[in-house]
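User: Reviewer 2 asked us to show a designed sequence for the structure in our supplementary figure. I'm pasting the structure tokens here. Could you produce the per-position amino acids so we can include them in the response letter?
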């Protein structure tokens, strides 16, 4: 486990595995959870595939698949090391904001699909009423996420400064 000076590698490893287990319990796949937790626990927030593999004692293929998943979820980004073909994988301090903000696009697509469902089923049918209620739920959630994200942005600026 890559640790800074004065850190107990065993304690860092315990945190990584414990936090990863919490992410798995919440529905994330095990290897992406471990890679994400390892990146989050590194001082730089950035590691190469080799560093992640060594730190987690897993194969490069396992790291590659995990990073692919995390990239698709907007939880990590890939960066080229200057003058090298190696990539570094980085977790950013605002990764939760980015991940949740990107969910808004998914919710919008669900709203669109549900609207089509209401139109095809008829709002007065039992199935149509379920669709109307489901659509109303996602419209509500969409509005709440947007408002919450704006409040978070302001709170973050106040607490941590511009970032």
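Assistant: Here is a per-position design you can include in the supplement:
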């Amino acid at each position: 486990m890559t640790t800074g000076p004065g850190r107990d590698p065993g304690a860092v490893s315990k945190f990584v595995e414990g936090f990863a287990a919490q992410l798995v319990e919440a529905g994330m796949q095990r290897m992406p959870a471990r890679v994400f937790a390892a990146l989050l626990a590194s001082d730089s927030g950035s590691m190469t595939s080799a560093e992640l593999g060594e730190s987690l004692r897993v194969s490069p293929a396992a790291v590659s698949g995990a990073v692919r998943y995390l990239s698709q979820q907007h939880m990590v980004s890939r960066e080229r090391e200057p003058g090298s073909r190696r990539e570094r994988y980085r977790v950013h301090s605002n990764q939760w904001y980015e991940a949740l903000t990107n969910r808004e696009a998914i919710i919008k697509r669900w709203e669109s699909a549900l609207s089509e469902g209401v139109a095809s089923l008829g709002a007065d049918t039992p199935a149509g009423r379920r669709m109307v209620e489901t659509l109303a739920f996602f419209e509500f959630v969409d509005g709440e996420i947007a408002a919450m994200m704006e409040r978070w942005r302001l709170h973050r600026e106040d607490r941590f400064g511009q970032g």
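For the response letter, you might also mention the following. The chain has six helices and three strands. The longest strand covers residues 77-80.
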